Amino acid sequence: MSANHSNTVAERSTRDRPCELVLEDGAVFHGFSFASERDVSGEIVFNTGMVGYPESLTDPSYKGQILAFTYPLIGNYGVPGYEKQYGLLKWLESDKIHVQGVIVAGNPEAYSHWNAEKSLSDWLVEQDVPGIYGIDTRALTRRLREKGTMLGNIVFDNRNVEFDDPNTRNLASEVSIARPVTYGSGSKKVVIVDCGVKNGIIRAFLRRGFSVLRVPWNHDFLGEEADGIVISNGPGDPKLCQDTIGHVKEALKGRTPILGICLGSQILALAAGADTYKLKYGHRSHNQPCVEVGTKRCYITSQNHGYAVRSETLPMDWREWFYNNNDGTNEGLVHISKPFFGTQFHPEASPGPDDTELIFDMFVRAMV
Hints:
This protein is α/β, with parallel strands linked by helices. The chain has 2 domains: 3-168, Carbamoyl-phosphate synthase small subunit, N-terminal domain (Glucose Oxidase, domain 1, 3-Layer(bba) Sandwich); 171-367, Class I glutamine amidotransferase (GATase) domain (Rossmann fold). The chain contains 9 helices and 21 strands. The strands form 4 sheets. Strands 12-14-13-15-16-21-20-19-17-18 form a 10-stranded mixed beta sheet, with helices on both faces. The protein has a 7-stranded mixed β-barrel with strand order 1-2-10-8-4-3-11.
């Protein structure tokens, strides 16, 4: 690390401003600011991943949430640059940070990595995102596991800031693109309905030689010529994506292959007539074990969601495809005769293990 950077760390650490994390149950955690200094409100969630914080922070599925990292060394390899591949940022999952705020255990100023261009702190300041360190993230995580995900505020001067529940809004509409965009020039084309799509999903199809038409969450894609339809990941309550659900319901009358990922899997289930519900504290990590129904295969998966499908409400022509080996919740669904699939986990990883990228290959075979 350069001497100049060491000096910057020393100077900044002397003026870290005290701030607080206030939960809706009245709990208060005292810490220090390492990023933008402004009050924010959101849903407090935790991620147990040891790496991948740049990808997680730019994942649109975190819209409206204050993200607590349980691993103590977040920020230690800095933040990569904005290099592009296929017209998309190569190392990040979207063009900006989507979380409301960041919670870490230790001061993340110092970093070292061949690909780093700035510190996590500088990146958050650049994008006006608050960050708090110096709190007991283990105690916070235990509280969320016992009581469930709850609302919270990062505050500097006023503890009486109102709590804002982001799940009352259609968050997918807030992170989706405004107009269609095309990537690649392959002979086969897949339409991706952008409910908060990660770059990794788009890259997965571009690597396989497809052209990708990315459309807004409420776009009527039924008139588009496509070999396959993907309903993307995204934030919030899937039941608020009524336009998307309506279009998918119509698409299910045909035979064009459909793949739902995360929020997209929930939307697929709702369009089929099943129900969804909010999990106690969600799944956000890189090591969620998912068992393929009818086999002894268990895959380690990357996940980020707060809602799930009620498997018992799936119609007669649908089957549960995967389930979570930790809590038994639904992790996938499949139609018994048509090429319609949904996975609650992220086969593209980014970050996390790519053990289930075979899902894309299976979907590609369905389109041939």
